[in-house]
Protein backbone atom coordinates (compact mmCIF):
# COMPACT_ATOMS: atom_id res chain seq x y z
CA UNK A 1 0.00 0.00 0.00
CA UNK A 2 1.41 3.41 -0.92
CA UNK A 3 0.85 6.80 0.69
CA UNK A 4 -2.46 7.22 -1.13
CA UNK A 5 -3.86 4.15 0.61
CA UNK A 6 -4.15 2.21 -2.64
CA UNK A 7 -3.08 -1.40 -2.87
CA UNK A 8 -0.44 -2.44 -5.37
CA UNK A 9 1.20 0.98 -5.48
CA UNK A 10 -1.48 2.50 -7.74
CA UNK A 11 -1.78 6.24 -7.12
CA UNK A 12 -5.47 7.05 -6.86
CA UNK A 13 -5.47 10.44 -5.14
CA UNK A 14 -5.06 13.16 -7.73
CA UNK A 15 -6.36 11.19 -10.70
CA UNK A 16 -8.94 13.04 -12.82
CA UNK A 17 -12.56 12.09 -12.13
CA UNK A 18 -12.87 10.76 -15.69
CA UNK A 19 -9.97 8.35 -15.12
CA UNK A 20 -11.37 7.16 -11.79
CA UNK A 21 -14.84 6.60 -13.25
CA UNK A 22 -13.49 4.76 -16.30
CA UNK A 23 -11.36 2.53 -14.07
CA UNK A 24 -14.24 1.68 -11.74
CA UNK A 25 -16.63 1.11 -14.66
CA UNK A 26 -14.18 -1.31 -16.29
CA UNK A 27 -13.35 -3.09 -13.04
CA UNK A 28 -9.67 -2.08 -13.17
CA UNK A 29 -10.26 0.02 -10.05
CA UNK A 30 -12.47 -0.64 -7.06
CA UNK A 31 -14.67 2.18 -5.76
CA UNK A 32 -13.77 1.03 -2.25
CA UNK A 33 -10.04 1.39 -2.95
CA UNK A 34 -10.58 4.82 -4.52
CA UNK A 35 -12.65 6.10 -1.60
CA UNK A 36 -10.34 4.56 1.00
CA UNK A 37 -7.32 6.25 -0.64
CA UNK A 38 -9.08 9.61 -0.61
CA UNK A 39 -10.12 9.14 3.03
CA UNK A 40 -6.51 8.34 4.00
CA UNK A 41 -5.36 11.50 2.24
CA UNK A 42 -8.17 13.49 3.83
CA UNK A 43 -7.14 12.29 7.31
CA UNK A 44 -3.64 13.58 6.61
CA UNK A 45 -4.58 16.92 5.00
CA UNK A 46 -7.67 17.92 6.97
CA UNK A 47 -5.90 18.96 10.19
CA UNK A 48 -3.90 21.55 8.16
CA UNK A 49 -6.68 22.69 5.81
CA UNK A 50 -9.92 22.45 7.84
CA UNK A 51 -12.07 22.11 4.71
CA UNK A 52 -14.57 19.50 5.92
CA UNK A 53 -17.21 19.95 8.62
CA UNK A 54 -18.13 16.28 8.33
CA UNK A 55 -16.09 13.39 6.97
CA UNK A 56 -18.43 10.50 6.17
CA UNK A 57 -15.82 7.71 6.31
CA UNK A 58 -18.08 4.76 7.18
CA UNK A 59 -20.99 5.98 5.06
CA UNK A 60 -18.70 6.71 2.11
CA UNK A 61 -17.14 3.25 2.26
CA UNK A 62 -20.63 1.70 2.38
CA UNK A 63 -21.63 3.77 -0.67
CA UNK A 64 -18.46 2.61 -2.44
CA UNK A 65 -19.31 -1.04 -1.71
CA UNK A 66 -22.74 -0.41 -3.28
CA UNK A 67 -21.12 1.12 -6.38
CA UNK A 68 -18.80 -1.87 -6.78
CA UNK A 69 -21.77 -4.25 -6.44
CA UNK A 70 -24.08 -2.23 -8.72
CA UNK A 71 -25.40 -4.50 -11.47
CA UNK A 72 -24.92 -1.74 -14.06
CA UNK A 73 -21.64 -0.33 -12.70
CA UNK A 74 -20.28 -0.20 -16.24
CA UNK A 75 -22.89 2.42 -17.17
CA UNK A 76 -22.42 4.80 -14.24
CA UNK A 77 -20.80 8.02 -15.54
CA UNK A 78 -19.28 8.92 -12.15
CA UNK A 79 -18.65 5.38 -10.88
CA UNK A 80 -16.67 5.58 -7.64
CA UNK A 81 -15.76 9.27 -7.93
CA UNK A 82 -15.43 10.81 -4.44
CA UNK A 83 -17.36 14.08 -4.10
CA UNK A 84 -17.64 16.71 -1.41
CA UNK A 85 -20.93 18.51 -0.80
CA UNK A 86 -21.18 22.09 0.41
CA UNK A 87 -22.75 22.59 3.85
CA UNK A 88 -25.84 24.28 2.44
CA UNK A 89 -26.93 21.32 0.30
CA UNK A 90 -28.98 18.52 1.86
CA UNK A 91 -27.38 15.09 2.19
CA UNK A 92 -29.71 12.43 3.59
CA UNK A 93 -28.84 11.69 7.22
CA UNK A 94 -26.61 14.74 7.60
CA UNK A 95 -27.30 18.21 9.01
CA UNK A 96 -26.87 21.19 6.66
CA UNK A 97 -25.85 24.11 8.88
CA UNK A 98 -25.25 26.82 6.27
CA UNK A 99 -22.15 27.56 8.33
CA UNK A 100 -24.24 28.70 11.28
CA UNK A 101 -23.59 27.22 14.71
CA UNK A 102 -27.03 28.40 15.86
CA UNK A 103 -28.88 26.13 13.45
CA UNK A 104 -31.64 23.98 14.86
CA UNK A 105 -31.93 21.84 11.75
CA UNK A 106 -31.97 18.09 12.11
CA UNK A 107 -30.57 15.55 9.68
CA UNK A 108 -31.99 15.80 6.17
CA UNK A 109 -34.63 13.21 5.36
CA UNK A 110 -33.62 13.11 1.70
CA UNK A 111 -30.85 14.22 -0.62
CA UNK A 112 -31.05 17.53 -2.46
CA UNK A 113 -31.64 16.92 -6.17
CA UNK A 114 -27.99 17.59 -7.05
CA UNK A 115 -26.79 15.02 -4.49
CA UNK A 116 -29.39 12.50 -5.64
CA UNK A 117 -28.21 12.91 -9.23
CA UNK A 118 -24.54 12.59 -8.26
CA UNK A 119 -25.26 9.38 -6.35
CA UNK A 120 -27.43 8.01 -9.17
CA UNK A 121 -24.43 8.55 -11.46
CA UNK A 122 -22.23 6.49 -9.10
CA UNK A 123 -20.47 9.28 -7.18
CA UNK A 124 -19.66 8.71 -3.50
CA UNK A 125 -20.20 11.51 -0.95
CA UNK A 126 -17.07 11.57 1.24
CA UNK A 127 -18.01 14.61 3.27
CA UNK A 128 -19.62 17.96 3.88
CA UNK A 129 -17.41 21.01 3.32
CA UNK A 130 -17.36 24.07 5.53
CA UNK A 131 -18.92 27.35 4.45
CA UNK A 132 -18.80 30.82 6.01
CA UNK A 133 -21.74 31.73 8.18
CA UNK A 134 -24.88 31.74 6.04
CA UNK A 135 -22.55 31.53 3.00
CA UNK A 136 -22.15 35.31 3.12
CA UNK A 137 -18.47 35.98 3.60
CA UNK A 138 -15.26 35.49 1.63
CA UNK A 139 -13.44 33.62 4.39
CA UNK A 140 -14.55 30.45 6.13
CA UNK A 141 -13.86 30.73 9.81
CA UNK A 142 -16.22 29.04 12.19
CA UNK A 143 -16.16 27.95 15.81
CA UNK A 144 -12.81 26.27 16.36
CA UNK A 145 -11.75 26.05 12.71
CA UNK A 146 -10.45 28.30 9.99
CA UNK A 147 -10.39 26.82 6.49
CA UNK A 148 -6.94 27.29 4.96
CA UNK A 149 -5.76 27.59 1.39
CA UNK A 150 -3.93 24.33 0.54
CA UNK A 151 -1.33 26.23 -1.50
CA UNK A 152 -0.52 28.63 1.35
CA UNK A 153 -2.08 27.86 4.72
CA UNK A 154 -1.54 31.45 5.87
CA UNK A 155 -4.28 32.43 3.42
CA UNK A 156 -7.97 31.77 2.98
CA UNK A 157 -9.22 29.78 -0.01
CA UNK A 158 -11.84 32.57 -0.33
CA UNK A 159 -15.33 32.32 -1.72
CA UNK A 160 -18.50 31.15 -0.07
CA UNK A 161 -17.56 27.50 -0.53
CA UNK A 162 -14.61 27.78 1.83
CA UNK A 163 -13.25 24.37 0.95
CA UNK A 164 -10.28 24.16 -1.36
CA UNK A 165 -11.15 23.53 -4.98
CA UNK A 166 -10.59 20.08 -6.47
CA UNK A 167 -7.51 21.35 -8.33
CA UNK A 168 -5.79 21.82 -4.99
CA UNK A 169 -2.63 19.82 -4.37
CA UNK A 170 -3.68 16.19 -4.06
CA UNK A 171 -7.38 16.97 -3.58
CA UNK A 172 -9.31 14.91 -1.03
CA UNK A 173 -12.28 14.65 -3.36
CA UNK A 174 -12.45 14.92 -7.11
CA UNK A 175 -15.56 17.10 -7.34
CA UNK A 176 -17.59 19.29 -5.06
CA UNK A 177 -20.89 21.04 -5.33
CA UNK A 178 -20.95 24.78 -5.96
CA UNK A 179 -23.82 27.12 -5.24
CA UNK A 180 -22.40 30.59 -5.66
CA UNK A 181 -23.08 33.05 -8.44
CA UNK A 182 -19.47 32.55 -9.55
CA UNK A 183 -19.65 28.78 -9.08
CA UNK A 184 -16.28 27.10 -9.25
CA UNK A 185 -16.59 23.41 -10.01
CA UNK A 186 -12.90 22.86 -10.55
CA UNK A 187 -13.27 23.33 -14.29
CA UNK A 188 -10.61 25.34 -16.07
CA UNK A 189 -11.69 28.91 -16.85
CA UNK A 190 -13.38 29.16 -20.20
CA UNK A 191 -14.35 32.04 -22.41
CA UNK A 192 -18.03 32.73 -22.71
CA UNK A 193 -19.56 31.31 -25.87
CA UNK A 194 -21.76 34.33 -26.45
From TrEMBL:
Residues 33-162 form the Amidase domain. Residues 146-179 are annotated as: Disordered. It comes from the Bacteria. One of its GO terms (cellular component) is endomembrane system. InterPro entries: Amidase_dom (IPR023631), AS_sf (IPR036928), FAAH2 (IPR052739). Gene3D superfamilies: Amidase signature (AS) domain. Pfam families: Amidase (PF01425). Residues 153-162, 169-179 have a biased composition (Low complexity). This is Amidase. It comes from Geodermatophilus normandii.
